[in-house]
């Protein structure tokens, strides 16, 4: 049932004011206009609403004058509260509500009291889906053709939401809602994520009055880069556990873990903060409706549940018989629940891509079961905590008139751990795989603060049942087909109903506007607004429309050169030519045309099992032309199939173009997007410090953390420079003696061997991640020198910052120190000089020629 717009009614309204104020004409006004308690709705075509003319009387003194207050802006009468939930990296077969084996009782309960939607689509990747969801526009339309960390200098890919496309938060806030955003914010450009701002692309700058969460693609849930509004906070520092991992024996099969985990976890903390916020709003003004955007980091890597939840899931033995059996079990559950069409068949298991379970060695099976148990515990734990937030709405008496939208996943399940998984996803983002043997060392630590863990892609394939492929794959439904439940006791009467209409994430904004009776603005801050591109699906709320045709009939999909075109049930898709973990392979040079095209009729073939392109060449041609038409319309061009190269590409930064950086005071929290970039280059770090009489220790400068980064510090008075190479190796330069009291100049110089090429221009990674020689000097005297055979090629641990004078979140070497490890010497100055390799014309010509040969080989 969709809300009808209310007819205007007035109490004690000044006719003179109405005649002179178009903003107050035809609106709902309560109380005596001009009194301090009066409220009004607004037409909403212009935001913020212009102030009405003063309606009182002004004489020479106050005794003869009459005060007049502008009415407070409120939403239409009985406008519902809105809780918009979206989880992360979760495919169709994850939640129990849609046949999964992982218990999600909160989602189950909402489905029982509301509606299930089984045809909900994402963009196949995090930032793009999230930008589309909050704006009601396609992801390229709002600058998010890819994630923020891959932004390039084209309108569809610059990671900047235009001012002409206001978010649902801004619209609802200016119409009287209290607005908030909890959890993951992956829609701030990497080069605007520092405390230097600007903050216009942060949640608080996009219309959300309150933000509690992390900025970026993922976060350590035991110690995230956490912000309240735009201020970084560290509440977890007061809740440290006693966990220790003994890495002293490099030959040990598993490194033992002892102690108690922290009693702080982001999943619980954000639920607590959300409950606190809504209670605060309710107690301040019980009549004000709430809009809460709730986006936990679960189930994106790292998978960080509490030990309690891991033990609960392990006791259920859900995964002991492997991922193919899991897939079959989920499929049978889906048929039993009726959430997939009858007669559906599964696509075959990709034996050439993923090793069948029975062919795995016992050690691999043991590890993979552990991976899946921790992932499932994470999902179940998150669902429970979201249930607490929903219960808080009920406790405040708000649940009856609250729309709860709970979307499972912003894309399909992630396979970025690769076929065998990884103890650290930071390795994946640097193109480095990890072996079973390496991962087994972290077996006991899996899911704790000592891992940045991801599971085998075999589980990911199963969790996307009944579809195939994964997150990143925009042409296969395993990458884009989500599911969702909506509960609204006051507005939805068909309890437990199933809806199969086509819904895309761009459809949420127009749906919310329709049910609240709030208009899409024509101008925001004086800027003409572009049309909303989504289609309301509020019509599907009525039981009479349960089987109504979909009103969203055309939708393109594109992600990193793979694309699809949906139109009235037909689905043209490009054949997958790259697995998600093959992010550093050579890219398709002509992704628009150099493709194998597949065609499906989703009205008959719900999960892409039968390619009928050969039988309908005219339909293939028609949909190819339609995709190009949509691509031109929504800023999809130029198409680009590169993945890892885009991470390495240049983009704005506070340090871009600077080869000398000087710091004279301690500071922390500078994010990687604006930090000095010391990868694939020669550099010198010079620290000017004064050691007191009693000696000194502590961090001078660090960037990154436990899973990748460097640190320059004093350890028991001795100078140390350390590179943590993806937690696979920790290479240390250390002076032999403690520094004597007094002033010292400490210097670490690194001479890099490679060319530093890792850009889209050459689509080449040949010159990155190379070795070099590092030299540590004290007051001009060499105290340590050694060679690094390889260096980190692409990125440090991105959610860990560049810090001077202390270390935040995690340290680069647990064996030496624990954060914050403040510097007890006097800090005078830090100078960083960067000598980035410059290619000669001859080298450029060789690289260009090599690229041409590579492309010719692909063709």
From TrEMBL:
InterPro entries from the UniProt entry: Alkaline_phosphatase_core_sf (IPR017850), Sulfatase (IPR050738), Sulfatase_CS (IPR024607), Sulfatase_N (IPR000917)
Q: What is this protein called?
A: Arylsulfatase
Single GO MF annotation: metal ion binding
Q: Domain named Sulfatase N-terminal: which ranges?
A: 80-518
> How far does the signal peptide extend, from start to end residue?
1-26
Instruction: Report the sequence similarity comment from the record.
Output: Belongs to the sulfatase family.
Keywords (alphabetical) are: Calcium, Hydrolase, Metal-binding, Signal
């Amino acid at each position: 049932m969709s809300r009808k717009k209310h007819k205007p009614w007035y109490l004690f309204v000044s006719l003179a004011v109405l005649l002179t104020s178009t903003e107050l004409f035809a609106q709902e006004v309560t109380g005596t206009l001009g009194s301090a308690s009066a409220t009004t709705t607004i037409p909403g075509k212009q935001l913020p609403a212009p102030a009405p003319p003063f309606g009182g009387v002004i004489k020479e003194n106050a005794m003869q004058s009459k005060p007049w207050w502008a009415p407070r802006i409120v939403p239409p009468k009985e406008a519902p509260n809105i809780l918009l939930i979206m989880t992360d990296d979760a495919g169709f077969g994850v939640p129990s509500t849609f046949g999964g084996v992982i218990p999600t009782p909160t989602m189950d309960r909402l489905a029982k009291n509301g509606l299930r939607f089984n045809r909900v689509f994402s963009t196949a990747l995090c930032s793009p889906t999230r930008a589309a969801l909050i704006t009601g526009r396609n992801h390229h339309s709002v600058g998010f053709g890819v994630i923020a960390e891959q932004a390039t200098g084209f309108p569809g890919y610059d990671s900047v939401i235009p001012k002409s496309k206001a978010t649902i938060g801004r619209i609802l806030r200016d119409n009287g809602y209290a607005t908030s955003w909890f959890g993951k914010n992956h829609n701030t450009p990497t080069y605007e994520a520092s405390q230097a701002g600007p903050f216009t692309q942060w949640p608080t700058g996009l219309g959300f009055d309150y933000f509690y969460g992390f900025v970026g693609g993922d976060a350590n849930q035991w110690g995230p880069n956490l912000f309240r509004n735009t201020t970084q906070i560290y509440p977890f520092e007061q809740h440290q556990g006693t966990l220790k991992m003994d890495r002293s024996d490099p030959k040990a099969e598993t490194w033992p873990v002892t102690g108690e985990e922290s009693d702080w976890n982001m999943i619980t903390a954000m639920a607590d903060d959300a409950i606190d916020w809504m209670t605060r709003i309710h107690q301040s003004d019980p009549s004000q409706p709430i809009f809460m955007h709730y986006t936990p980091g679960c189930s994106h890597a790292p998978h960080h549940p509490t030990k309690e939840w891991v033990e609960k899931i392990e006791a259920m033995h859900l995964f002991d018989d492997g991922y193919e059996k899991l897939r079959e079990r989920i499929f049978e559950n889906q048929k039993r629940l009726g959430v997939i069409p009858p007669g559906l068949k599964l696509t075959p298991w990709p034996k050439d891509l993923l090793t069948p379970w029975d062919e795995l060695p016992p050690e691999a099976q043991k590890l993979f079961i552990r991976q899946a148990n921790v992932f499932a515990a994470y999902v179940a734990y998150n669902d429970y905590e979201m249930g607490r937030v929903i219960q808080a709405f009920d406790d405040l008496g708000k649940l009856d008139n609250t729309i709860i939208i709970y979307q499972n996943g912003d894309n399909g399940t992630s396979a970025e751990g690769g076929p065998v998984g990884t103890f650290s996803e930071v390795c994946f983002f640097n193109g480095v795989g990890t072996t079973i043997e390496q991962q087994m060392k972290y077996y006991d630590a899996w899911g704790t603060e000592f891992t940045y863990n991801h599971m085998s892609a075999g589980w990911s394939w199963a969790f996307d049942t009944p579809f195939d492929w994964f997150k990143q794959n925009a042409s296969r439904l395993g990458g884009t087909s989500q599911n969702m439940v909506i509960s609204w006791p006051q507005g939805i009467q068909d309890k437990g109903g199933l809806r199969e209409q086509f819904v895309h994430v761009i459809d949420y904004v127009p749906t919310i506007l329709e049910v609240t009776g709030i208009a899409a603005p024509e101008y925001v801050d004086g800027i003409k607004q572009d049309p909303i591109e989504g289609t309301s699906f509020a019509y599907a709320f009525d039981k009479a429309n349960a089987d109504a045709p979909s009103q969203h009939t055309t939708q393109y999909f594109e992600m990193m050169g793979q694309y699809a075109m949906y139109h009235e049930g037909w689905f043209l898709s490009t054949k997958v030519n790259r697995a998600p973990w093959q992010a550093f392979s050579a890219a398709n040079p002509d992704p628009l045309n150099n493709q194998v095209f597949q065609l499906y009729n989703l009205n008959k073939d719900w999960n892409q099992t039968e390619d009928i392109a050969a039988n309908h060449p005219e339909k293939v041609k028609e949909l190819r032309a339609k995709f190009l038409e949509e691509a031109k319309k929504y800023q999809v061009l130029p198409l680009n199939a590169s993945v890892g190269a885009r991470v390495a590409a240049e983009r704005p930064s506070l340090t871009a173009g600077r080869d000398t950086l000087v710091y004279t005071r301690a500071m922390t929290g500078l994010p990687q997007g604006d930090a000095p970039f010391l990868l694939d280059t020669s550099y010198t770090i010079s620290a000017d410090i004064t050691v007191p009489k009693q000696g000194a220790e502590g961090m001078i400068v660090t960037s990154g953390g436990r899973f990748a980064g460097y640190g320059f510090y004093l350890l028991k008075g001795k100078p140390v420079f350390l590179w943590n190479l993806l937690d696979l190796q920790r290479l240390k330069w250390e002076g032999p003696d403690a520094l004597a009291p007094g002033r010292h100049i400490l210097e670490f110089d690194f001479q890099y061997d490679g060319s530093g090429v890792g850009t889209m221009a050459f689509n080449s990674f040949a010159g990155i991640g190379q070795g070099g020689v590092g030299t540590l000097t004290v007051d001009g005297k060499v105290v340590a020198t050694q060679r690094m055979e390889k260096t980190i090629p692409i990125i440090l641990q991105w959610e860990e910052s560049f810090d001077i004078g202390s270390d935040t979140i995690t340290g680069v070497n647990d064996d030496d120190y624990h954060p914050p490890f403040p510097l007890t010497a006097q800090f005078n100055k830090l100078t960083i000089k960067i000598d980035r390799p410059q290619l000669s014309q001859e080298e450029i010509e060789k690289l260009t020629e090599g690229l041409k040969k590579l492309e010719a080989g692909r063709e």
